[in-house]
Amino acid sequence: METYTDDRILQQPIGYWSSMAGRAVVTFIRATLERHGLTQPQWWTLNYVADRPAAVTIDEVVDFHRGFVDTDDALRPDALALIATGLLLEVDGALTVSPAGQQRREETWSDVHAALATIREGVTDDEYITTVRSLQRMIDNVGATAWHA
């Protein structure tokens, strides 16, 4: 890893570094999910449905994610694909996770946890917290908002 002096880091463009970090991390996570036959939006959908105490509709899945992921209605085809492959069940518009979906979810989580550990390797909890809070502040400073569940 190339490192810079503190003075040089202070001259670096945050837009570049935050964008490159986001792109690299998302690519890494998507590759992990792909090994399990899932897209990232399918993973969000599967987990959202599994974590609800009662069945939900596709509209509820889409509306919830619209708040923090730039998906609009693009999540709808991913939910339909999960139904088509039998990972989600839909009865009268209500979604639940099938036994096959729950098994896929459990199998995938171990790799997801390993991927997240790789991403955070060498980064302390305090550094991670400082990084996220700094990015939140910069977003706020430019009059934008960001939210994540």
TrEMBL record:
Stored Gene3D superfamilies: Winged helix-like DNA-binding domain superfamily/Winged helix DNA-binding domain
Domain of life of the native organism: Bacteria
InterPro entries with a match to the protein in the record: WH-like_DNA-bd_sf, WH_DNA-bd_sf
Protein name: MarR family transcriptional regulator
Organism for this UniProt entry: Tsukamurella pseudospumae
